[in-house]
Each structure stands twice: as C-alpha cells, then as structure tokens.
Amino acid sequence: MSQIKREWLLHGCLKLNDDAAAERVTTRIQSRLSQAYGGEKFRVRFWPKFGFKNTLWWYEKSFKTPSVAASYFLKTDDGRGPMLYAGISVEKGFEGAKLARKRAAQEREATERWLLDDSWDWHRFTSTWDRAQPLILEAAEALHRELYLGVEFGDATRVSKHYLVRDGHLYWRGGFNTIQWSEVLKFATKPHPKLWGSIFLARAFSLDDCTPFLHERELMDVFEAMRPIRDLWRGIQL
Length: 238
Fold this sequence. Notes:
Shape: globular
Low-confidence stretches: none
Number of helices: 7
Radius of gyration: 17 Å
Mean pLDDT: 92
Largest sheet: 8 strands, antiparallel
Order of helices and strands: EHHEEEEHHHEEEHEEH
Number of domains: 1
Number of strands: 10
Distance between the termini: 34 Å
Helix content: 25-40%
Strand content: 25-35%
Structural class: alpha+beta
C-alpha cells in the first residue's frame, strides 16, 4: 500500500525513497494502470531530473518519446502553498526545429523529445475539444469535486490561463462569471512558436485531505474518472 504523506505537501516535493521500491507511489500506480489497460506496460517520468521530485507522469512504455503522449500526472504545488494535484496532461513541443535542437542539446536528449510534429497528442486535444467537454463534466460529477483546468506556455516567464470546472460550468480562475468552453481552445491554439506548452485537468487535494496521508486508491479514482478524456486525446477511443 502506497501513501502520499502530509509532509510532502508541506515541503512541496515528493520524498519517494520513504518507501521500499515496490511500495512507492510510482510503482504502485504504474502497476494499477497496467492492470486497468489490460496488461499494457507504463513508464514513469520525473521532474526535476535531480533531487527531490515535484511532478510525476505515467504513460505507455511503448512510447519512446514521453512528451508526445497524453499522461496521468501527480504534482505538488511548490510555490503557492501546500496542495497536491492529480489528473491528466498533454504537452506541446517547440514549433521551430532550431529551438528544439538547442534545447535538446542542453538537455542531452533527442530532438524528437522537444520538436512538435504530427505524432504529438497535443493535436488530438485541439481537434477533439468539443468531444472532451461533456467528458470533463462527467469526470467532475463522478468525483463530486470541482476540477482545475490550465493551459500554460513557457518556462521561466509563463503565459498561462487557468479555469475552474464547477456545477456543470466553466469559470476563469479569479472570477465568478461563467465563460464559453471555446475560450480554452482559442487560447491553446494561439501561436506560441518559441514556448513549450501544456494543458492539464486535475483534482486538487488539500493538506487536510492528506492528513495523516492520502491512499493511492484516491489517485486512481481520479485517473479512472478522467480516463475517457485521456484516452480520447491518446487516440484510443476515437
């Protein structure tokens, strides 16, 4: 049994070596996802590369380039306060080959890891957005929780917009007026050729939710509720 500990939220990072390798949240969720997908093997990706981690992603092992695939994720908020987010995300690579090659050289990785092409699930997110909307509302209803939606571009200087899914409606984060779902796609498809991008959908867990700890099955409840959306963006349910 894997436990997400209260202290992880307080410190803004995941102390994964608290547990034996077989009992870590990385391994346990990996195994549960494999079972849910009929034996499909899943990998785990971490950020940052060195030191304690604040973000984990799970995606099919068959993908050699992890950033291409829509993924399940877990993230601590290491900036604004003790919060944990669990959900799904899709990344958008750099549109220019020169910039992608430069970043790949800096990270000592293949250019394909950074260069947006037709194989990236980002394109399916944008092309199926109308179909994803009712699935997002169904996920919120199944979890009996508001969900947080964000579209972010850039590293150090972020160009981003954040939204709240609540009671069957979409709101700006920081406002009380409902907005059209098309606003998300409008912003996501606005050209940002020099910026890395992503969209995420998440349920938030507070410090109280994780006191004394949060069980892995509660993460899986989130992943299972969001699976139809993630599989749509993966192309599994087209």
